[in-house]
Amino acid sequence: MVREEKTARQLFEQVKANPARAKFGFGNRVAIVNVDFQQAYTRPDLFPRTAYVTDPDQIAHVNRISAAARRLGMPVIWTRVMYKADAGDAGVWGTRTNTPDSLQNIKADSDRHAFDPRVEIDRAVDFVFDKRMPSAFFETPLPSYLVWHKVDTVIVTGGSTSGCVRATAVDSLSHGYRTIVAEECVADKHESYHYANLTDLLLKYADVVNVAEVDAHLAALAG
């Protein structure tokens, strides 16, 4: 094991700056998968123990790329985490703690379950669903939805980078999709977790790119 004094952010920037690193690249049919833009994770003013902000413009970026994909007739997906009243659907994941801030106590239609009011969801066309586990793919309708829409590229946004974003990105690659993580569009509680996981995603499972590259690709698809 290599040991260095560099921070997680420095290591990420070093890997990202390597011009020899091959990319999976974008395909022709993208889906934007926006992971858990719910108040439990996006509103530190309401839920300081569980919410986080990395890039202050994260939601504006997500709204913009989602709108661009929507104009192209390509899928935009929004997920949330929630559990039934007795948390019996949280499985072993819900057994470590049991406080008002615990994961399994995100109940349907609660303030923690509610989408952040800043996100722009078009419920007439966007696909919105709840999930129980980290990945947006695990035991959800997402795999069949992407197949039906002939998607070849999944662009992942949301939080947390070290949790549900990472799990979704790994599953996306495992399902055979070119997987893109837009750096300014993902967030985590701590800088070290955030950049360590971006580094690992970049090394193995996804292209981690600036959101400007996503903007440019969507603009190119629009002609």
Summary of the model, kept short:
It contains 7 helices and 6 strands, in the order H-E-H-H-E-E-H-E-H-E-H-E-H.
Look at the structure and give the CATH class. Alpha Beta
CATH topology: Rossmann fold
Rounded to the nearest angstrom, the distance between the terminal CA atoms is 47 Å
The pLDDT mean sits at 97
For the secondary structure, the number of strands is 6
What percent of the residues sit in helical stretches (DSSP H or I)?
Answer: 25-40%
Structural class: alpha/beta
Encode the helix/strand succession as letters. Answer: HEHHEEHEHEHEH
Shape: globular
Number of helices: 7
Provide the β-strand percentage band.
Answer: 15-25%
Q: What does the largest sheet look like?
A: 6 strands, parallel
User: Radius of gyration, Cα only, in angstroms?
Assistant: 17 Å
In CATH, the architecture is: 3-Layer(aba) Sandwich
Strand order in the sheet with the most strands = 3-2-1-4-5-6
- Tell me the number of structural domains: 1
Low-confidence stretches: none
